[in-house]
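Page 37, continued from 36.
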């Protein structure tokens, strides 16, 4: 009987130990599963963060390259437009110089002189002309009521007339040079130049 009790006691202890062992195995298995799940989630999170970081780096590099290309293209476009504008105005200047060789130019020169004479209202003045126009100096000076001294002005490259009245403190500029320059700003603002 004592042996039976001992056997039963040992069986109970073994049963209890097996139950504890199975419970511990279950806990270890559950703990392994939880830790594995946590590790997978952390790895997934780290992977997503790394992916975002790499995508941001790629995006930033490409954006910087695009910005530089855009800036380079805009600079090239600006240079091309400036070159086109210079060519247009150089052609216009040549045509105006050709115009100064015509009778119509001489009539326009007289008309400009008359407008300046009206502005100066008979007061003494100095008239400035391009060297090519000095042949008409006496005829133009005769249009002024007061004394009109005529001088060559080397800054007048195309033609026209400029007058200065010291008594009034006025300079009247009717040169083709200044009129062409005035058109340049308007042209740059309003011309829709396309570079193909």
């Amino acid at each position: 009987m004592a042996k039976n009790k001992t056997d039963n006691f040992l069986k109970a202890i073994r049963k209890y130990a097996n139950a504890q062992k199975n419970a511990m195995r279950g806990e270890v298995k559950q703990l392994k599963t939880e830790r594995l799940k946590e590790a997978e989630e952390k790895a997934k999170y780290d992977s997503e963060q790394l992916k975002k970081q790499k995508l941001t780096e790629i995006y930033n590099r490409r954006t910087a390259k695009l910005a530089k290309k855009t800036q380079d293209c805009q600079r090239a476009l600006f240079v091309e437009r400036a070159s086109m504008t210079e060519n247009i105005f150089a052609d216009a200047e040549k045509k105006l110089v050709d115009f100064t060789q015509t009778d119509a130019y001489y009539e326009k020169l007289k008309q400009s002189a008359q407008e300046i004479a009206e502005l100066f209202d008979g007061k003494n003045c100095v008239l400035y002309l391009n060297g090519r126009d000095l042949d008409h100096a006496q005829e133009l000076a005769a249009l002024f009521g007061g004394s009109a001294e005529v001088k060559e002005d080397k800054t007048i490259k195309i033609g026209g007339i400029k007058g200065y009245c010291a008594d009034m403190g006025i300079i009247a500029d009717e040169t083709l040079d200044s009129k062409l320059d005035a058109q340049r700003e308007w042209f740059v603002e309003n011309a829709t130049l396309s570079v193909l």
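Residues 1-99 form one domain. Flag for discussion at group meeting. The mean pLDDT is 87.
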